[in-house]
Fold:
Amino acid sequence: MPPEPQVTRRPGALAFSGPLRMSDAEGLWSAMQEKAAESKERKLDFDLAGVPVVDGAVMALLVELRAELAAQGVEANFINASPLVQPLVHLYRGDAPPTAIRLPGRPSMLEVLGDAVSHLFEQLRRNSGFLGELLGSLGGVLWRPAAGNFQAVPSLAARAGADGVPIVLLLNLLLGFVMGYQSAQALQTYGANVYVAQLVGISVTRELAPLMTAIIMSGRSGASYTAELGTMGVSQEIDALRVMGFDPMQFLVLPRIIALVLVAPALTLLGDVVGVFGGAIVGVMSLDVSMQSYAGQLKATVLTSDVITGLVKSAAFAVCIALIGCQQGFSTTGAAAGVGRSTTNTVVICLFTIVVVDTLFTIVFRMLHV
Amino acid sequence: MTATPIIEVRDLRLGWSRDAVLLESAAFDVREGEIFGILGRSASGKTTLLRVLIGLEEPLAGSIYIRGIGPPRVGAGRPPYGVMFQSGALFGSMTVGQNVALPLQRYTRLSGAAIEAMVRAKLRLVGLEEAMHQLPATLSGGMLKRAAIARAMSLEPALLFLDEPASGLDPVTAAEIDRLIATLARGLGLTVVMVTHELGTVNGIVDRCVLLDRPTKSIIAQGVPAELRASTVPSVGQFFRREPAAT
Structure:
């Protein structure tokens, strides 16, 4: 059985004995720190006379402790190292002046505030730069439509639309179903069972279907735009486009915005239909409302303007999602970690923006009586 | 080889701000028909210099003229040069052939069949004809570089910028890329500006070069590689003899 590693304190030195290996590093690190703290001397050498072998992990800790002591004004040198141990001392620069440890100072409140404000302004500058560049490119395409990358729109629309249909249908169906159930008890209390059609119809067409579809698009298309453009940026593909004379806004961003704006209202319309159908299932199953009565009530109470406001909202959400997704993709830096960070940002910013825009729309529509 | 400068760089200062300067007072000429190397240790500003030369970044000061016109600007129509990026930067969603065809579709009125024939010829030139319908993700490092060179050459530029064409490749593949660049440059009369720190490339195919130095933020040597190898300036000799810096 090999001897246990030990640290003992004697005048002017910490004496180490036994093999110093990584498996004992935890105990050794606490022991050597404790013994060093007990010493009040200005010189505390590390005596390695009793050490037959030391590995890199423990040597790193010894060198670190030496630097910590030096920062406190205590001189510590490695002494009596055997010919077997001395090369490792040299390799880890234990025989050179200790590297000064610079602990990062805690930033003051003012510095934190200053950093936050500066970051905010930088973000604003970038975002307005992005928007300005985009508007310029949009003007360019309107002036010379041949410059637009319209052939990319169908495949982008298919990816954002057709591939997203199943999840949009399922979630909106469930949403209509839940809306119906949640209102069922209250409606039954007042004997107003048939109004489930109005309740579900209006809330789904005006609010829930556009909102739910936008949330799904944020996670699918917004995040995918960021990841795709971010990876293109990191792998210099966007630079390559620029030097080949392509405008990345025209080539990459505008087709994505167009694709999403085309697809979002279509998905929302599908969401409207299945959401209303979800409410009908509840009406028929729990509220003794016939399918005919449900349809009649729906026709009488849900106006075309309800559906149109939902579609207008969904198109606006689509613009926001595409813009945020592309802007975050373009501002991605720093390889894979950067792409992951930007993708997360996209989803969070999209959700926030969608809710804010929805609120604004609600106020405006209310003011316009639509 | 003629001595006409195709690129003239004068008093160039590169960096991010007045306090973060990478290179100062850089001045050199690139002559028509030569393979010109931009050399230096890591973080000495080689790639930044290349990005400034192709117009992707702006210098803090100084002037660059390419064929007497300057400064270079991207997005201003058909580019007067081809560029190969270090990573290849092929578009991952397109096949190799589509990548090479893209500039041709953008700037020519050639028919699809004519473009395909030109793409096939370009890929044959770099030894990659069989990979025409493959996606970049399926290519090896050497094949990616070849495909990127083919795309850079698709519009028949007289000037080619290459960023680390042989980096990250095994010695044999690196030598093959070097030979390809030399063959294309000599055969087509191209002027090639390449960023590299591969001594094999420098010694093998570079006609003249500049050596950037990080500590002094300057060009510490320029000329023919053989002359620079014999330089008595310590940091120049150190670079060419592959010696570690004193610690």
In short: The first strand of chain A starts at residue 6 and ends at 10. The first helix of chain A runs from residue 25 to 38. DSSP finds twelve helices and four strands in chain A. Chain A has a mean pLDDT of 91.
